[in-house]
Amino acid sequence: MHGPLFYSKILLFGEYGIIKDSKGLSIPYNFYNGALKIDKHHTISTHKSNASLKRFAAYLETLQTENPKMVSFDLKALKKDVESGLYFDSSIPQGYGVGSSGALVAAIYDKYAKDKITVLENLTREKLLTLKAIFAEMESFFHGKSSGLDPLNSYLSLPILINSKDNIEPAGIPSQTENGKGAVFLLDSGSTGETAPMVQIFMENMKQEGFRNMLKDQFTKHTDACVEDFLQGDIKSLFGNIKQLSKVVLDNFKPMIPAQFHKLWKKGIDSNAYYLKLCGSGGGGYMLGFTEDIDKARKALKDYKLEVVYSF
Hints:
Distance between the termini: 39 Å
Strand content: 15-25%
Largest sheet: 5 strands, antiparallel
């Protein structure tokens, strides 16, 4: 058995904000992917994934019992495959903010869900929200609270525009320019980040009025503007807003930025060579960079590994 490929994702804009109803824009990233496979020989390398799927299957059984109207799985087939050595063969780095658990959730739903909503049917807003809700419940097994967005992106393999919690739609994004100087890139922090503790810090901060106001008046404002600019292809305005967003994140989300990158983050803002922002929940993994001149950014970040994900 070799299941279909499910891709990683990049949330260009909206990390943390979408928990509190800012806009967001998520795109599939085909460089990394994963598929369900069966390892008949039960080798050591697939054991960890197989053991995790065994626990996941038990979790899905509970989920189905508690909420039978929401989703039902062919649990018999899933358990049988897990016993036979089912594992998720994935090149998606874990703890890097590019949706490793999301791709796994999408693959399991695709293979084992009964009466599933398929990618080929007319995806009404209602169907998208149903899928997102199912995926949120499934993915919460991996890191506490999930928005369901990563698996949705991986499952549909389409850019998704989040207008608010209850309003999401597939989005058309401007096509990439072959020789564009402008770029969105991933910057490897060299360490992994864990989602749950970062979200915990965010939720604690949300108890303070000052933080809530900053989120509404600055963070959400600039995030929403970035999404609009990006979709409309207004590059000049986009970079003005990204610079502001990068500043707000540096000032208010310090724990989510690995300490050794605080200076590098500020250097980008001061020099305008690049602007950094969080990719996923932060704390490690990738950071997302935006630059109007990729050569300039490469020079300024010559000691780091950059991976271009979008050119304009």
